[in-house]
């Protein structure tokens, strides 16, 4: 159940190897009054995880640009990569380790994880996993917008 006055952010990323590693992402903001704002984009030579992260970052960035009054956000993502990384505090352990694994190698997508930390600042955020293709209206919308962006460019 959504928290009172929380903005809901549904995100998804899409990736197609047969389109020369082109990816698409989408963010659907659902405001307490019921209005929606959608955004989507495309990148070349990317990965699915990068598109998933970009969707969350761009959705939060849009929210911050729209209004400073929205301080509570629930992010819904079908990416366990994102939800688990944030909810298990692994993201903060990576920050503390200067974005290095215990073997000394750099954390994948550290540039985007750093961006995510920046856009999360000042917002009361909860990350929730939503099963993909489970009939959730806004998750399905984010999925179709991400695929559209991947296929046709946005």
Question: What would the keywords be for this entry?
Answer:
single chain, 154 residues, alpha/beta, 5-stranded mixed beta sheet, 5 strands, 25% strand, globular
Radius of gyration: 15 Å
Low-confidence stretches: none
- Tell me the helix content: 25-40%
What is the makeup of the main sheet?
A: 5 strands, mixed
Can you characterise this structure?
This protein is α/β, with parallel strands linked by helices and 154 residues long. The chain is built from five helices and five strands. The protein has helices at 48-66, 80-87, 90-96, 110-120, 137-152; strands at residues 7-16, 22-30, 36-43, 72-77, 124-129. The chain is globular, with a radius of gyration of 15 Å. The mean pLDDT is 92.
Write a brief caption for the model:
The protein is α/β, with parallel strands linked by helices and 154 residues long.
